[in-house]
Each structure stands twice: as structure tokens, then as C-alpha cells.
Amino acid sequence: CSTSPSSAPDVVVVRFDGKSIPGNVSVSLYDCSGASVGSVFAVDGIAKLDVPTATLAYARISHIEPSAGKIDPVTGGTYHKIMHVATTTMRTHCYASPSASTVAELV
Fold first, then answer.
1. C-alpha distance from residue 31 to each of 27, 35, 60 (Å)
2. Half-sphere exposure at residue 56, Cβ-oriented, CA atoms within 13 angstroms
3. What predicted TM-score, i.e. pTM, was given to this entire model?
4. Strands 78-91 and 56-71
5. Residue 101's pLDDT is what?
6. Which residues 6+ apart lie within 8 Å of 65 measured at CB?
7. Is 106 left (phi over 0), alpha (psi -120 to 50) or beta?
8. Mean pLDDT throughout 33-52?
9. Segments of the chain assigned E as strands
10. Does 20 score more than 70 pLDDT?
């Protein structure tokens, strides 16, 4: 790998309803044991990061969708937002080319 033998460049693509989420979305990162290894921001749906090689890594995002006062069928109350959470698992390998990367898409 270009920066370190233990990590490789990777890209996380964050989409909702098939479209990149505009603005900044926090992407939480975890190693194979489930320990947090920090977070990055996906700017207009794209986050570039270094992930551990030859082991599993995980990413999690949350997105709040505004809602126009829908009725909850269980409680009868209204709600004005819907929270979506997505996770993905990735395994990155080092290749001879430093530009090689994988794409993990959160849909």
C-alpha cells in the first residue's frame, strides 16, 4: 500500500433513495473487533479514508429524513422526521497500484 502496509485507501459512498446525500454526513468506523476507530465526513456522499488491510472493517451512518407530519399507526401521534441507519462491511487488500480501492455503498 502507498501509505502503510497495514492500511489502504478506500471510498465510502453514502446514498439515500439512490441519490448521494448532500452536505456532510458523519460515517462512523469500526475495526474487526467492533471497537470504534473514529469517524469521517462524507461530503456530498463521498468519504475517502484509510482502512486496515486483510481484515474486516465496518462503517455506519445515520440520516434524518424530514417528514410532513405523518401519523404513527401504533400511538396515533404525529412525527416530523424519520431516522435511517445503514451499515456495511468491507475487506480491503493492498494492490501494487496505490490508486486501487474498493467502494462500500450505504443505500
1. 13, 6, 12
2. 8
3. 0.67
4. antiparallel
5. 47
6. 16, 81, 82, 83, 84
7. beta
8. 85
9. 7-16, 19-20, 24-30, 36-43, 46-52, 56-71, 78-91, 103-106
10. yes
Q: Which amino acid is at 29?
A: L
Amino acid identity, residue 92? T
Grid coordinates given for 12: 465510502
Residues 6+ apart with CB under 8 A from 26: 39, 40, 41, 42, 61, 62
The three grid cell numbers given for residue 53, joined into one nine-digit string: 488491510
Residues 62-84: b if buried by 16+ CB within 10 A, e if exposed: ebeeeeeeeeeeeeeeeeeeeee
Backbone angles phi, psi at 95, to 5 degrees: -120, 165
